Amino acid sequence: MSEPFEPKIVGFLCYWCSYTAADLAGVSRMKYPPNLRVIRVMCSSRVDPVFIIKALLDGADGVLVAGCHPGDCHYQKGNYYARRKVALTKKILESLGLGPERVKLSWIAASEGPKFAQVAKEFTEEIRRLGPNPARAEIFL
Amino acid sequence: MARRDEPRVGVYICHCGINISYKVNIEEVVDFTSRLERVVVARDYKFMCSNIGQELIINDIKEHNLNRVVVASCSPRMHEKTFRNACKKAGINPYLFQMASIRELVSWVTEDEREATQKAKDFVRAAVRRVIHHEPLQPRIVDINPNVLIIGGGIAGMQAALEIADAGRIVYLVEREPSIGGHMAKFDKTFPTLDCSACILTPKMVSVGQHENIKLLTYSEVEDVSGYIGNFEVKIRRKPSFVLEDKCTGCGECVKGCPVSLPNDFEYGLMDRTAIYRSFPQAVPNIFVIDKEGFSPCRNACPAGLNAHGYVKLISAGKHEEAFKLIMERVIFPASLGRACPAFCERECSRQLAGGPVQIRALKRFVADWYYENVGLEPPVVAQEKKEDRSVAVVGAGPAGLACAYYLAVQGYPVTVFEALEKPGGMLRYAIPEYRLPNNLVDKEIEFVKKAGVEIVCNTPVGKDGKRIDELFKEGYKAVFLGIGAHKDRTMGIPGEDLKGVHHSITFLRRINSGERVVLGDKVIVVGGGNSAIDAARAALRLGAKDVTIVYRRSRVEMPAFPEEIEAAEAEGVKIQILTNPVAFHGKDGNLSEVECVRMELGEPDESGRPRPIPIEGSNFKIPADSVILAIGQYPDSAPLAEDGLEINRDGTIWVDPETLATSREGVFAGGDATKGPSTIVEAIGLGRQAAEYIRRFLEGEDLKARPYEEHWLETVDREEVLKKRRYEVNEPHRPSERPVAERIKDFGEVELALDEERAVEEGRRCLDCAGCCECRQCELLCEANAIDHFMKEETLEVKVGSIIVATGFKPFDPSNLVQYGYKRYPEVYTSVEFERLNNAAGPTGGEIRMKDGRVPGRVAIIHCVGSRDENTNRYCSRVCCMYSMKFAHLVREKTGAEVYEFYIDIRSPGKMYEEFYNRLQEEGTHFVRGKVADVTDVTQSPEEEGRLVVVAEDTLAGKVRRVPVDMVILSVGLTAAEGADKVAHLVGISQDQDGWFIELHPKLAPVSTASDGVFIAGCCQGPKDIPDTVSQAAGAAAEALSLIMRGQVEVEAATSYIDPEICVGCQQCKKICMYSAIDYDPARGVCVVNEAVCKGCGLCAATCPNKAVTVKHFNNEEIFSELEGVLL
Q: What is the share, in percent, of chain B residues with pLDDT greater than 70?
């Protein structure tokens, strides 16, 4: 390991709030680490636990799921379902010994460009601190 | 077709001028891309979104036979549609396209060029991998409903409504206030032209009101919005206005009768209004509404449902006869209640928290006495035709029986009351001592009941020992009411209870109330803690006892007697000995001489919820006594009725259905102490009246339970809210005076004295009108058009529309928290909106600029940027304040000649003729002081400042602190998001920015569109703006809506869910969680099916399905997994 560790992070962002916030962060030229790779979903509730597990097995060091604030979901209450799914996924990861702290759920509203940049920055730092994900598929399976 | 073909991908990398290329090495990305699997063409161009860029794609598709396209450029929010259309033009399905955002997500947010390039490569690779799995989807075409919903009836909503209605389409214009007009209707003049706001607005309002295509729904709020572009279903809640829209002529006669006084919101509380009101004379629709927020706490506290608020307010307006009539609708014996009622109403009165409760009971006494003295003993009812064939027998001439009798009699039913005792009145006569309720008054009130047509026969018990119930029916009575009270004393069952000198309270009180002077001796012990113990004790004092002690087995807090009665007894010298209980009475020669008591302690709570008293062993002691009065409870003498076929409860009360008060025997009803056990007069009267209603239903052959007893009932308003909203002075009630103790204990004369008229009226005015309307119903009497319906219910209207325009406006900033400006602390500090009213010809001063004391101000300060451009409140500029502040300056100078000081940060006057107006103001001699005001104070430093407010500010041009003494201060408050904007945003699916303003689709190019298709925004709800901008935006939003309507059809997202019936097991989990009920279960096939017209494509079902039978088109697992692999490689 000659190169310093650069985490790979996948971010599933809901189109209505968090993806818009990411756009706003861009429009406002807010700088954040390049480690976050964004995947657009229409609603945070679309994020199947399988997505998160697959991301971790495919080599992601961290997974961010971001949706509208509680009560603000574009689809009424999809974010509440997302919250449950993420909580459940963490339990599964825990029992598999796959550090649940590598998964983060965050509420980022459409107007919260700065918050998006902040979350991206903090989560990257957090994962950097945790080090590489040991559970890549080739090792784990 | 395309799926089976080999995927051939074309990738296009955009420079976006230099927006992308300044961080991303485009050449490197193109090179990388061209080597990716399936990529046939990889190119870059300066502006992919330009026509040339799009042509590039179209040509390549044709030339290289491409069947997949990826564009790496800006956010899909910007140009996804553009490129999809390009694909469509070239003949491939628009869903075979994928966008990679390398501007918003890469070049603009990444410092390092190498990293940005790498990130862009990852995104392009992910998009290529994803697009390979894309499937062609058919966009759904939906029809556009040509009707439009507009939320908000200010100038924006009105303008949009007129544009659309004039184009021949139907508009539902929903406004939550009673009138349209919004803020503009409150302004006096508009800047910079100084034309009269009302003069230009009201004709528009009238047009809106009269337009055949505008369905005006005022006093209404949107409750729910469902559906999608072209096909919205909207639920609108129409608040009850209690005035029939089609009948009200707007004459305003009703206002003259209304005794209620509430702060006038339209005038920002600068003056009051009545409960029935119209916001302003030019209101559209020009009809009145009644401000009724529920029932007042006093009214719902009354067991008999007496409308205390109503009669209190009528008394305050000097309408004593009307007040009396209102009382008689719910109770009889008002003079008796006015003396002996425990006044549950006063305990709930909001004034409890503001000086002391309104003296409701004393007011009732006043008005009842007034009526008997000035009008007489005639019941205020219209004689009804006698219903001779439906006569009713009432047993017991107490409050319950007589109330039942009275309310039947006034409806024309012949009623005969049979009373066992010598005289009618029940407990009123026989249990309440005369110092609280004189018997001649009881006589008077019984006379009053008789005049309503009630016949009373005394000395006639009913039951086993008297007249049998069967006999009553045989005599022709069609129904019987039993109001026999609870006249039997409980006994203690301890040794010596039969000694001479041991009395039981009910019997004792009956004897003294019958005029007997019972001899008690000097030392009297009263046993018990209830009201009848207190009555007995105070009566004992008046009979000459020197030493009266109440002995009670629990502690003081558990005493069931009313606190004010206990206090009055103590004031008269009655002693109270708690935690003590008699165990035996000892006597000499058959006469009581000593009471043997035991000390008690409190244990665990018993079934009554109070701590159980436990005797302390060995603590017995003796008290010498001449008499003892046992007041330990009473129960109904119902045993003789059991043999007449009635079910009797274990405690001796008669069993009744709690709703109908029907006993176990058909046609026999009961109420009062007979069914409840010992309670209060007002409860007995309430039950008597309730029984009368159910007897009426019984006699008329109606289903007893078809309707509730209280058909008109509203929730109690919140006292805390009332106190927040009303303006009032915390002051002492006008309590009725009492005779001095030394004098009153010598006889049985009344203790409490009446309120005189002046004090009664004053006391009535202390009422805070908690509920708003007091339902005195004076307006009904005055309304010639019969337009008032106090029982109007809320309605929900459902409409279908194709588009929605949100124009919910703003709320003026509330400067209360900016204490340095002294708002609400100094009366001469106004907000700008308040000043608009002060300056308005229709406002509280008729348009004269006057101080609260009536003087014309000599110097006026206007403070800019209050709640704007301030880190501590709002950072944004509210855009209109500079201009209206200068308008004020001009008007103040024109009307009063006062010197005006404008304290500003910068003057913002960008607009047609705005800068010129600024110049004009400077020439007119307005003083412009550049500096933010630090303080507005009444602490003076020089004689010139004396009696004035001093505005302290640093003059940043002169470089010194200035103190400017003025008479009036106007705070130029900014604009903030409207109240309830969050709710509206959520209803229609749009977002708010950090300040609460609605977010437009694009700040430059789509200023009235939103992220929700078919939903448009106009006016200040999008951000602060002046009237011309608002009107332009409104017209723009109307044009967008009309454009949609003219198209007739629109494509909607094809990315809906699909359930594979081969995999689905019919567990229906997806059906349960779907928030749009878009999934149905098909029992024939045992699978779930998606209704695509309703599905919104959120994908929750796909993530939930345990066997992955559900997929979301365009966001299926394969597509997302490929994208995932693409970014992670």
A: 100
Q: Of the candidates B76, B109, B1103, which has its C-beta nearest A25's C-beta?
A: B109
Contacts of B1118 in chain A (CB under 8 A): none
What 3-state DSSP class applies to B840?
coil
Mean pLDDT calculated for residue range B1000-1004: 86
Q: What is the 3-state secondary structure (H, E, C) of B313-332?
A: HHHHCCCHHHHHHHHHCCCC
What is the predicted pLDDT for the residue at B921? 96
Please name the residue of chain B whose CA is at the shortest distance from the CA of residue A38. B105
Mean pLDDT of the B190-209 span? 94
Measured distance CA(B666)–CA(B478) in Å, rounded: 10
Q: Looking at residue A1, what is its pLDDT?
A: 46
Closest Cα of chain A to B1106: distance in Å? 10
For B587-615, letters b (16+ CB in 10 Å) and e give eeeeebbbbbbbbbeeeeeeeeeebebeb
- Whether chain B has a CB inside 8 Å of the CB on A23: the answer is yes
Give the HSE-up count for residue B839: Cα atoms under 13 Å, Cβ half-sphere. Answer: 30
Give the residue among B897, B903, B889 at the shortest CA–CA distance from B835.
B889
DSSP string, B660-699: T-B-SSTTEEE-THHHH-S--HHHHHHHHHHHHHHHHHHH
Residues of A in contact with B101 (CB under 8 A): 23, 38
Which pLDDT score, from 0 to 100, does residue A26 have? Answer: 95
Closest approach of B1050 to chain A, Cα-based (Å): 21
Q: Which of residues 104-133 of A touch B (CB under 8 A)?
A: 109-112, 117
Q: Which two tokens stand for residue B432?
A: 């309440």
Q: What is the pTM of this model?
A: 0.85
| Residue in B102, B994, B1098 to test binding to A, most A beta-carbons within 10 Å | B1098
pLDDT at site A138: 58
Residues of A in contact with B1096 (CB under 8 A): 75
For B957-970, what is each residue's pLDDT tens digit?
A: 999 999 999 999 99
**Residue B1056: closest C-alpha in chain A:** A42
Which pLDDT score, from 0 to 100, does residue B1 have? 41
Please give the average per-residue pLDDT across B807-832, as a whole number: 96
B2: confidence class by pLDDT, cuts 50, 70, 90: very low
**Dist CA B985 CA B1013 (whole Å):** 14
Nearest to B1021 by CA among B29, B150, B55, B387: B150
**Cβ–Cβ of A43/B1123 closer than 8 Å?**
no
Across the beta sheet with B231-238, what order do the strands follow? B220-228, B231-238, B795-801
Q: What are the Cα distances from residue B199, in Å, to B189, B203, B204, B205, B206?
A: 9, 7, 9, 11, 11
Of B999, B1099, B1121, the CB nearest to A45: B1099
Give contacts of A 34-93 with B, CB under 8 A: 34, 37-43, 45-51, 54-55, 58-60, 71-72, 74-78, 81, 85
**Angle CA B1033–B1039–B1041, to nearest 5:** 105
pLDDT tens-digit map of B24-59: 999 999 999 999 999 999 999 999 999 999 999 999
What separation in angstroms does the CA of B433 have from each of B343, B520, B537, B575, B593? 18, 16, 11, 19, 26
Whether residue A71 and residue B986 make contact (CB cut-off 8 A), yes or no, is: yes
Q: Give residue-wise pLDDT tens across range B153-184.
A: 999 999 999 999 999 999 999 999 999 999 99
> What span, in angstroms and rounded, lies between the C-alpha atoms of B915 and B444?
80
Tell whether domain A9-134 is in CATH 3.40.50. Answer: yes
pLDDT score for B3: 46
Return the percentage of chain B with pLDDT > 90, whole number. 92
Q: B479-482 and B668-670: which strand pairing?
A: parallel
Whether the Cβ atoms of residue B811 and residue B977 lie closer than 8 Å to each other: yes
> For chain A, how big is the Rg over CA atoms in Å?
15
For all residues of chain B together, what is the average pLDDT?
94
